[in-house]
Amino acid sequence: MKLDEIITADEKMRLARLIFNNTFNQLANELPQTPRPIAKPLAKPMAAKPKPRAPKRAPMAPPPKPLPKAKPLPQTPAQIKHQQHKNQQDYAQTIKKTFNKDGGIKMPKSLQPLPGNIISPIGGGDPELNKKLDQARKDYELQYRSSGSKPQSF
Questions:
Q1: Longest CA span, the chain
Q2: What own/partner pairs with CB < 8 Å and gap ≥ 24 does 129-133 have?
Q3: 8 A C-beta contact, residue 22 and residue 13
Q4: CB-based contacts of 113: which residues, under 8 Å, 6+ apart?
Q5: Phi, psi dihedral angles at 7 (to 5 degrees)
Q6: Is residue 148 over pLDDT 70?
């Protein structure tokens, strides 16, 4: 019998159900009947959730040994002189600050700076002395100058 001979959809559905039911019934009869095991109830209730364990860390290498400290190089004479000069300047600044803080105390004359208007002992302030020194220089150059050399300018 062909499916095209059955005209309506209801008849097609009945035929399909009949085929499926017969097939599944035969398969069910052929299977051996084995008793299913019954689950036994547990005496203790299970814990809510197992505690998470921290992952194991990988072994680490020991820390490296510290390097030996470098020995300081001996200072050169120029460095020693510079260090002494710096210490003297720092000490002088400290003394100056101390005297400036106290209004009633004045610096001793030996520590006070020299005023800027002091006349130089080499003829800085006397114009006649400057003229005489210039004339003496010119005379000296004329007397000892070799031929063809230029006079020095001071």
A1: 155
A2: none
A3: no
A4: none
A5: -90, -45
A6: no
CB 84 within 8 A of CB 78: no
pLDDT greater than 80 at residue 144: no
Closest CA to 18 of 3, 4, 32: 3
Q: Residue 81 corresponds to which tokens in the numbers above?
A: 């002189």
54-83: per-residue pLDDT in tens?
888 888 888 899 988 888 888 888 999 999
The better pLDDT of the pair 144, 89 is held by 89
Contacts of 6 (CB under 8 A, 6+ apart): 12, 15
Which amino acid, 137?
R
**CA 93 – CA 88 distance, rounded (Å):** 9
Q: Distance (Å, rounded) from C-alpha 134 to C-alpha 29?
A: 145
